[in-house]
C-alpha cells in the first residue's frame, strides 16, 4: 500500500520543475559543457573585440582603421550559408573543436603587431577569427539541437544569452586592464588560452552523430542542390521561420540605427561620452534577465508572440529616447536590453526545433546572416543621419517604424504551401 501511494504521487513531484526548468538544463552534462565553453571563449572574445580597436588606434591614430577591426570580424557573416554548410558535411563535434583551435593557433601571430605596417596582419587574423566564429556558431547550434531536449531549447538559448551578455559586462573591463599592463599581445594570449580551454570542454561532449553521418552519406550519393540554397530554401518556405528571421533582421537593422544615436542621446542629457558605460550596463543587465526567463516565456507565448512583444518593447524604448530625461534614458536602455534578445532567442530556437538535422548547419548560418548583417548597415546609416538630423525626431520616427514591424508576428502565420509557391531567389542573401 505504501509503495502504491508513492507511485501515485510520483507524477506530481515531476510537475514542479516545468515551471523553472533552467536548473535541469544546467545539470545536464552536455548542456553544462556547452555553457561552460560559452563562458570561457566568450570572455576572451569580448575582451579582444574592445582591445583590437584600441590597439589599432594607438598604433595608427586612425579612427577608420580602428573601426575596420569590427568590420573584419563581422564580414564573414555574409558568407554564412556557405560556411555553415561545413556543419552539415562533416561531423560537428570535431568541427567545433577545430573552430576553436584555429583562432587559438592564429592569435599568437598578433604578438608581432607592434607598428602601423603590421596592422594588415591584425585585420587578416580578425577576418579568419570571424570566419571560424561563423562555423563555430553553426556547428554548436546544430549539436545543441541534438543534445538538449526540444522542450528545453528555449531555456538553453536563454541561458546562453544571459551568459554571453554577462561576459560583455565583465570581459571588456578586464581586457582593457590587461591591455594597459601588457598591451595587445597580452589580450591575444588570453583569448588564445580561452579557445584552447573551450576546445577541451567541447572534446568532453558525449553527443552522438550517427544520424548526421547517415545523412552525409546519403547526400554524397545524390547531391541535387548547393549547400547554401538548401538552407535558404528551407527558411523561405517555412511559415514560422521566414517571418521570425526577417523580423530579426529588421530588428537588428533598427538596433544599429538606434545604437548610432547613443552619443547624441548622451549629449542631449548633458553628460560626457563616458555616460555610455552606465547605459550599456543597464542594457546588459536587462539582457541577462530576459535570458534567464526566456524558456518559460517561450512556452507560454510561443516563438512569434515572444518575439513580437520583445520587438514592441524595444521599439517603444527607442522612441522614448527622444525625451531628454536621465531616469527615462536608463529605463529605456534596460527595456532595450530586455526586448532586443527576444526575437533572436525565438528565431534560433525555432530554427533548431523545426529544421531537419541534415540542414541544420546551413539553416542556422543562413539565419545568422539574415539577422546580423543588417546591424552593420544600420550602424553606418545611423552614423550618417545623426550628422544631418537632430536625434530627437530621429528617435521618435524610429520607434514608430520599428513598432510596426512587430504587427505581422501577432497575426496568424501563412500556410506552408502558400509561402513555398513564391520564388526562393528573393530570400537569397547573395
Please outline the major beta sheet.
none
Derived structural class: mainly alpha
Count of alpha/pi helices? 19
Radius of gyration: 22 Å
User: How would you describe the oligomerization state of the chains in this entry?
Assistant: single chain
Written as H for each helix and E for each strand, in order along the chain, the element string is: HHHHHHHHHHHHHHHHHHH
Taking pLDDT < 50 over at least 5 consecutive residues as the criterion, the unreliable ranges are: 1-19, 211-225, 415-430
What global shape is seen? globular
Number of strands: 0
Distance between the termini: 68 Å
The chain-level mean pLDDT equals 83
Overview of the molecule:
With 430 residues, the protein is an all-alpha fold. 79% of the residues lie in helices and 0% in strands. It contains 19 helices and no strands. The longest helix has 51 residues. The N terminus and C terminus are likely disordered.
Main attributes of the structure:
single chain, 430 residues, mainly alpha, 19 helices, disordered N terminus, disordered C terminus
Amino acid at each position: 500500500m505504501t509503495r502504491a501511494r508513492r507511485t501515485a504521487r510520483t507524477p506530481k513531484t515531476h510537475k514542479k520543475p516545468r515551471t523553472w526548468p533552467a536548473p535541469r538544463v544546467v545539470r545536464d552534462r552536455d548542456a553544462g559543457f556547452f555553457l561552460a565553453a560559452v563562458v570561457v571563449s566568450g570572455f576572451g572574445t569580448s575582451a579582444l573585440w574592445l582591445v583590437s580597436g584600441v590597439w589599432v588606434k594607438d598604433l595608427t591614430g586612425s579612427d577608420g582603421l580602428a573601426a575596420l577591426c569590427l568590420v573584419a570580424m563581422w564580414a564573414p557573416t555574409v558568407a554564412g550559408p556557405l560556411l555553415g554548410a561545413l556543419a552539415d558535411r562533416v561531423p560537428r563535434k570535431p568541427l567545433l573543436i577545430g573552430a576553436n583551435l584555429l583562432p587559438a593557433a592564429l592569435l599568437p601571430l598578433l604578438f608581432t603587431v607592434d607598428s602601423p605596417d603590421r596592422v594588415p596582419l591584425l585585420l587578416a587574423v580578425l577576418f579568419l577569427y570571424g570566419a571560424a566564429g561563423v562555423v563555430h556558431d553553426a556547428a554548436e547550434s546544430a549539436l545543441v539541437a541534438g543534445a538538449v531536449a526540444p522542450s528545453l531549447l528555449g531555456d538553453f538559448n536563454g541561458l546562453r544569452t544571459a551568459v554571453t551578455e554577462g561576459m560583455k559586462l565583465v570581459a571588456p573591463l578586464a581586457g582593457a586592464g590587461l591591455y594597459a599592463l601588457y598591451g595587445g599581445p597580452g589580450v591575444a594570449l588570453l583569448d588564445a588560452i580561452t579557445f584552447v580551454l573551450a576546445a577541451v570542454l567541447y572534446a568532453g561532449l558525449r553527443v552522438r552523430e550517427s544520424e548526421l553521418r547517415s545523412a552525409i552519406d546519403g547526400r554524397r550519393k545524390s547531391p541535387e542542390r548547393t549547400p547554401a540554397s538548401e538552407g535558404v530554401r528551407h527558411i523561405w518556405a517555412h511559415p514560422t521561420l521566414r517571418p521570425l528571421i526577417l523580423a530579426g533582421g529588421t530588428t537588428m537593422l533598427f538596433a544599429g540605427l538606434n545604437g548610432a544615436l547613443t552619443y547624441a542621446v548622451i549629449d542631449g542629457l548633458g553628460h560626457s561620452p563616458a555616460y555610455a558605460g552606465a547605459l550599456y550596463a543597464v542594457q546588459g543587465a536587462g539582457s541577462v534577465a530576459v535570458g534567464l526567463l526566456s524558456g518559460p516565456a517561450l512556452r507560454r507565448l510561443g516563438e512569434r508572440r515572444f518575439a513580437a512583444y520583445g520587438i514592441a518593447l524595444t521599439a517603444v524604448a527607442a522612441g522614448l529616447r527622444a525625451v531628454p530625461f536621465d531616469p527615462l534614458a536608463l529605463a529605456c536602455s534596460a527595456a532595450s536590453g530586455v526586448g532586443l534578445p527576444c526575437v533572436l532567442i525565438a528565431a534560433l530556437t525555432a530554427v533548431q526545433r523545426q529544421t531537419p538535422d541534415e540542414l541544420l548547419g546551413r539553416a542556422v548560418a543562413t539565419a545568422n546572416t539574415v539577422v546580423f548583417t543588417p546591424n552593420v548597415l544600420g550602424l553606418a546609416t545611423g552614423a550618417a543621419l545623426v550628422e544631418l538630423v537632430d536625434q530627437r525626431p530621429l528617435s521618435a520616427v524610429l520607434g514608430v517604424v520599428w513598432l510596426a514591424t512587430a504587427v505581422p508576428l501577432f497575426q496568424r502565420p501563412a500556410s506552408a504551401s502558400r509561402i513555398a509557391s513564391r520564388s526562393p531567389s528573393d530570400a537569397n542573401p547573395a
